[in-house]
Structures are given as C-alpha cells and as structure tokens.
Design a protein that fits this description.
Length: 403
C-alpha cells in the first residue's frame, strides 16, 4: 500500500511539475498563424488577442474580416507556396479556418517539424469527402450507403438507386457541390466532376457536435445541437442548443463524434455533422476540421467558446469546460435574396430590445444573396421561449444593401 501511494504521488508530482513548467509564458504567449481571414478567422483572432497571443492572418483580401483584429496580415491566395511558407515560419503554431488550402506545402513543412494543427494529413483526408467517408467506413463508424461515381451516364445512378445525393469529392462548401437526384427526371442536375453518391437518408433531424482534442489525446465534446437549413441555399439557418432529442440519442451522437475525431487523430476543434434517421440511428454526414457555424452559440452559452477551445487544443493547453450555461438558439444573418452591395442592417435596435439577444456582425464590406454576414444568439432559461424570440428576430433583422 505504501509503495502504491509512493508511486502515485511520484507520478502526480512529476505531472504537476511538467504542467507548472508549461504554465510560464512571456508576452505574447505565442504567435498564432491563421490561414483564412473570414468570419471564423476573425472570431478566432479576437479570442487569441484577448488571451495574449500575437496573430498573423493570411487571406486574399486586404479588407477581410480578420484584418481589423490581426497583428499582421499576409495578402495571398491559399495555394501560394511562398506565402504559406512565410506564415508558417513566422508562427509558433499555424491553424486554418478554411479547408481549401495547398496541403502539399503544409505537409512538407509539418514533416520538417513546424507546428500545424489540425495536421495537413488530417486536412487532406477531409478535403476529399469520398476519402473522408471511406475512412469512417473502414473505422466501422456509421455512414450512409455510398459509392464512388465511376461514370456519369444514367445507368450508374439507376443501378445505385433513386433517390440519392450526389456530392463533389472536392471543393464543395455551404451547400455547393451537392445535388439531390430523386429520379430519372433529375439526371440533368448531375455534377460533371469527381464525385460520389449516397443514399438519401430519411432524416428526422440534422445534428452536430463540436469536439475538441489536444496533442495529448484529451477529448471533450459540447452538447449535441439541432440544425435547420435554409432549403434554397442549403446553408444553416437556425440552430437549437441543446437538441430536442432523447438523452440516449444525445449520448450516442457524442460517442460517434468523438470516435470520428480520434479516427482522424485530430488536434483542435472539429464540427461533426450527423443525421438522426427516422429509426433513431446516428449516421455521419461530414466533418469540419476547425471552428464551425454550429458552434457559434458557445460564445455566449458555454463556459468555454469553441474559439478559445481551439486555441487551447492546438497549443496543448488544458481543455476548457464545455458546460452549457443556458439554453440557446442561433440564427445566421444571410444577405437578403435580392440585394447586393454595401450592407445595410435593418431592425437592429428592435432586435436588441429583446432580452437575451447577442448580435455578431462579421464586417464584410459587401453583401450578396445568402452570404453569411453575421449571426445572432438568443439565450433564455426556457428553450421554447428562446425559439420564439429567435423567430421574432428573424422576421425583424435583415441584411440588405445601400441603394
């Protein structure tokens, strides 16, 4: 007994010593490179600045949302080898808020010992949605029935069976690169690109789970959330947290989401999108290796936001609490359908008069139909009341354009 206590005490003191050694930092704490300067990059940079990091962002636009909150901005596209090398070499740790990046350059840098998280090898799998699905299937994780498109004539789709969903293997984003083929009459919609098809799942709800994992393999998941999509653009329109589902289903969803991130050997925060079928089965839809639209509610509603959690994970700091403090609803503010130009916000004062409303505007200089311009989070002790408030805000708050 004495020997066991001695060993435990020795190990505990060793771990504590190691953690204390890693608890002393200069200022800035570290230089964080963020590839991508959109809204996710901006919110990540804002949290990084709050925590004492130095931020270097890379984006094609000198007026990108992250420009106003970064210490340095490298203006470049995401495939320029020299500029990618520049941001990685200038940074202690590099991450990204967008998937469409030159992974060949990043893999070479990663192999040379530069800290890039999630790793470019993880990103390379996620960039190809067919490889992503294949990996999950090989790991015995639940996915819809799917098959690589080998030829684009009608016989292939007929053999697979209608209805089905065709998805571009690469390049799809915010609903682009996805078509539903219900029958032969829809074959004129077929994407002329490398792709795969999967069964059209009979869905009860679309769910998502944010999962954080650091380099040590520590993992934490956030509550399961419920997503409703804007049908014409297939962009997340409305999010309910926590999801209105049975706790057993929620537990299963969290377990699957954690296994997904572990299968990828992921480091950082990941948005895992899931289907809940009519038979209460959980199936994996797809994964984002970064902060995600379905995690925005965590800024106001959870102890640790997804952005802080991502920084903790990639810097190998202790992961924060994922406890949800209040029921929440999040709505995306999309550019109105018939408006394009400099944004004009309608209904802001009236919306902010509703108790529990938090308004986020991304600072994009131009609006366009269905472009993500901001989001609103609504907190209330009663989830149903929060939903009613969100519906009211959705009617009032509009992003139009100056005449």
């Amino acid at each position: 007994m004495f020997f066991e206590e001695f060993v435990v005490n020795y190990i505990w003191k060793g771990e504590m010593k190691r953690d204390m050694h890693h608890s002393t930092f200069g200022f800035p704490i570290k230089k964080i490179g963020i590839i991508g300067g959109g809204q996710l990059g901006k919110m990540l940079a804002q949290k990084a600045k709050q925590m004492g990091f130095y931020v270097i962002s890379l984006d094609p636009s000198p007026e990108c949302p992250a420009a106003s909150v970064s210490d340095e901005l490298i203006v470049s596209d995401f495939y320029n080898p020299e500029k990618l090398k520049e941001i990685v070499r200038k940074s202690d740790i590099t991450t990204y808020e967008i998937e469409h990046i030159n992974t060949a350059v990043l893999k070479d840098l990663y192999d040379k010992g530069y800290h890039i998280y999630p790793s470019p090898y993880c990103l390379e799998i996620i960039q190809d949605k067919f490889k992503q699905k294949q990996m999950f299937k090989n790991a015995n994780l639940p996915v819809p029935r799917f098959e690589k498109v080998t030829h684009l004539d009608a016989s292939f789709f007929e053999k697979f069976g209608f209805p089905c969903v065709q998805k571009a293997s690469k390049g799809g984003y915010d609903g682009r690169g996805v078509v539903v083929i219900k029958d032969k009459e829809d074959l004129n919609k077929v994407l002329q690109t490398e792709s795969f098809v999967e069964e059209l799942v009979d869905i009860k709800k679309e769910l998502a789970v944010m999962v954080a994992r650091n380099k040590r393999g520590d993992v934490k998941s956030y509550p399961v959330v419920e997503m409703v999509f804007e049908q014409s653009a297939n962009i997340l329109d409305f999010l309910v947290a926590p999801a209105r589902i049975d706790e057993k289903i929620a537990q299963r969803a969290r377990e699957v989401a954690i296994k997904v991130v572990e299968a990828l050997d992921g480091v950082g925060v990941f948005g895992v999108e899931l289907f809940l079928t009519k038979d209460d089965e959980i199936l994996i839809n797809e994964v984002a290796p970064r902060p995600h639209n379905s995690g925005h509610y965590t800024i106001e509603a959870c102890v640790t936001s997804q952005f802080e959690q991502h920084l903790r994970a990639i810097c190998d700091l202790p992961l924060g609490s994922t406890k949800q403090l209040s029921p929440a609803v999040m709505i995306n503010l999309l550019g109105e359908k018939d408006y394009k130009g400099r944004p004009k916000i309608e209904g802001l004062a009236e919306s902010l008069s509703i108790e529990g409303v938090s308004f986020h505007f991304y600072g994009k200089k131009m609006t366009a139909p269905f472009r993500k311009m901001g989001h609103v989070t609504i907190l209330d002790d009663d989830l149903e009341v929060a939903i009613e408030k969100a519906k009211k805000v959705k009617k009032i708050l509009k992003i139009k354009a100056e005449v």
